[in-house]
Design brief:
Length: 318
């Protein structure tokens, strides 16, 4: 059959058991699709080695087979299976199976498929479906789905798989709907801040200004006036003559008031009457001389130091 291609060689790296099973299945499909299934055993051995690749041919040469057996397709396949399939420890295989849980981000289908793959090497014989069902219930990552499965006394493997797929699909649909709702809320208009009557009246004039500008009027426009926070013709500010509700000053609206956030600064100037002895003072600049008590027995002078009046007693050293 045209367009039918053999499998891409037998990989001897990694898990050779899985690699061989996958290669064997693809090769059997290829034999049927290419109408080579009815060919002689010797021809099928040649097709097998050609598809498996050079490394597989080297392995084939190590098989202890007679010249006649090397032409027997079934015997060659059996030797490849023995070579690629390690001796299994059923206890270990069952331990690996019973430890398998659905990982974070793993889809339910992938989880179930891996369980079915692991159970083949556990030798449960006729109990494979029941143990896979139990592992699904105990290892599923969705707690609500697990509770749903535990409520059914006669839960079968098919029913467990159906519940898992339905729950996963419902969650995906819910996320899609919720995402659309969030987008709808995000596109809703935000309520505007209430404005004063003269601001509201001016907003109705914006369209007239815009239309006149679009009709070719060359008047200079302010893109954003700091007094009214609007666009208008120069010299036609609607805030002119209006009193601000925040600072009570004229010619601007409260929405752009530059003084409404200014707070009174209170300076705590506590008095300190403590006496200090100063060894020496270097005066670079006398800001203000408040008092010169030349008529008193003691010579005192009050100076402004760092913005504070300080009285000094003068000592000439005589």
């Amino acid at each position: 059959m045209e367009g039918c291609h053999p499998p891409r060689g037998l990989n001897f790296n990694g898990n050779m058991d899985d690699n061989w099973r996958r290669f064997k299945q693809l090769f059997e499909i290829y034999l049927i699709a290419s109408s080579n299934e009815a060919k002689s055993s010797e021809v099928k051995v040649a097709i097998l080695l050609n598809a498996a690749g050079e490394e597989a041919v080297e392995v084939f040469n190590t098989f202890n087979l007679s010249a006649e057996d090397r032409k027997d397709f079934d015997k060659v396949v059996n030797h490849f299976e023995k070579f690629t399939t390690p001796k299994r420890n059923v206890v270990v295989e069952r331990f690996i199976f019973n430890q398998r849980c659905q990982e974070e981000g793993e889809t339910f289908d992938v989880f179930v498929m891996d369980l079915k793959k692991l159970v083949k090497s556990c030798e449960f014989v006729d109990q494979s479906d029941s143990v896979v069902r139990d592992r699904i219930v105990l290892g599923v990552g969705d707690a609500s789905l697990q509770e749903r499965m535990l409520r059914e006394s006669d839960l079968s493997l098919e029913r467990a798989i159906d519940l898992g797929k339905t729950a996963e699909l419902s969650k995906i649909r819910a996320q899609t709907v919720q995402g659309q709702n969030v987008d709808f809320v995000g596109r809703r208009s935000v309520p505007q801040k209430p404005v004063s009557s003269h601001e509201a009246n001016w907003s109705n004039k914006d369209e007239t200004v815009d239309k006149s500008f679009q009709n070719g009027e060359k008047a200079r426009m302010f893109s954003s006036c700091w007094k009214c926070k609007r666009k208008h013709v120069k010299g036609k500010c609607p805030a002119y003559g209006k009193r601000c509700h925040s600072c009570n000053n004229l010619n601007h609206f409260s929405v752009v008031c530059r003084y409404k956030d200014v707070k009174d600064v209170v300076v705590d100037e506590s008095e300190d009457n403590s006496d200090y002895y100063v060894n020496s003072i270097n005066v670079h600049h006398i800001v203000k001389c408040i008092e010169l008590a030349s008529t008193l027995k003691e010579w005192n002078k009050t100076l402004i130091i760092e913005g504070q009046p300080v009285t000094f007693k003068l000592d000439t050293g005589v």
